[in-house]
Amino acid sequence: MKATLLRILSFLMLMATGLSAQTTYTYTNFIRQIQMPSGVEWELSNISANGERQSGLSVADDGARFELWTIKSAPLTSYLLDSKFVGAYIPTSGVTIRSEDPYTIIPRTRADRPFWVDVNVTGLSSNLLAPLAARSVTLLHHTQSYGTGIGDNLNRLLATLASQTSIGGNGERRFSYQVTSIAGADRTKVRGEERFSIFSLADLLSPASQLASQYIQIWPVGTGSIAGITEGEMFRSKIRTITVGATDMYPDSRTYLQIYKGPALLGTDGLVVPSSVMLGDGNKPKDDARPVDLDNYVKSDGVWTVELLTSTPFGIDRLAKVSFQVGRSLHVNSLLGTME
């Protein structure tokens, strides 16, 4: 580390070389190292106009300033030719993304749900004289759509930069996102990922580099349908078989039909029809459809309601509903009389 630091300054010594070559006076060159923030100094004296030497001091945690000086012999005059700040900082960072879905392998959520990004940064300098690269890092937020797919063979170099934020100083920070930032004609139906990366800033020693990164998968909001029956339809005999269908079922979700007597009322607990249950895939959206026979579940005349519900980590949502009427009882009107 110490030898490297003085190699960086070696090109500055050429300035002193040129200065001494143009006059008959003698010049003595030296490098002064000033530790930050203590101000402790160390000098490397009688150095040649080019080459490299090892410093006698390690660079302090908050960095050090290296000054290249030359002293003219007559009249005795000192010149500060250049100075450079070198940091011993090695910033580190971590990114954690949380959502309402407890799935642990890859963070994921639904397009209409919030998520949170926690960023922890350590190793930055608190010295205001330190270069910007020693005092801050950059948070990059990229979005990328999967189109109609699930992200297989995704080229992440094609992701869109949604925002970048400068983070100064050490500590933890939390960023909240109420819904996805992935663009789409129907924002409830987008699918893709959002990636959050922490990068160091470029300095004299190294280019900007990634310190930490994590992404969250965004899956579309599921939709559903009930076919084969219409709102308000009257049945006086057997109820025909209906078809229930679900599109974009959320991973690990459970979608099912329930039936209850009475008009539609959100939040009603009905009887689950076992043959209607559709289970989501473990890690990607899924479409499904199946026939359902309701006749055995309708025990009396009146208004009945069927609802297609989906259960996800975000709660239970109603995807579709239909209310219908049943009138199977036979009513006979007659007149009773006598003959005389």
Topology:
Blueprint: H1 2-21, E1 27-35, E2 41-47, E3 64-72, E4 77-86, E5 92-99, E6 108-110, E7 115-122, H2 132-135, E8 136-145, E9 160-168, E10 171-177, E11 192-200, E12 210-219, E13 223-227, E14 234-235, E15 242-249, E16 254-261, E17 271-272, E18 278-279, E19 286-292, E20 302-312, E21 315-326
Parallel strand pairs: 6-12, 14-21
Antiparallel strand pairs: 1-2, 1-3, 3-4, 5-7, 7-10, 8-9, 8-11, 11-12, 13-15, 15-19, 16-17, 16-18, 16-20, 20-21
Describe this structure in words.
It is a single chain. This protein has 340 residues and is mostly beta strands. The protein has three domains: 2-86, no CATH class; 92-219, Sandwich (Immunoglobulin-like); 223-326, Single Sheet (S-adenosyl-L-methionine-dependent methyltransferases), CATH 2.20.130. The protein is 7% helix and 46% strand. It contains two helices and 21 strands. Strands 14, 16, 17, 18, 20 and 21 form a six-stranded mixed sheet that branches. The termini are far apart.
Could you tell me the mean pLDDT? 87
Report the top-level CATH class of the largest domain.
Mainly Beta
Number of strands: 21
CATH topology term of the largest domain: Immunoglobulin-like
Count of runs of 4 or more consecutive helical residues: 2
Supply Rg. 37 Å
| Strand content range | over 45%
The domain count comes to 3
- CATH evolutionary superfamily of the largest domain: Macroglobulin (MG2) domain
Structural class: mainly beta
Largest sheet entry: 6 strands, mixed
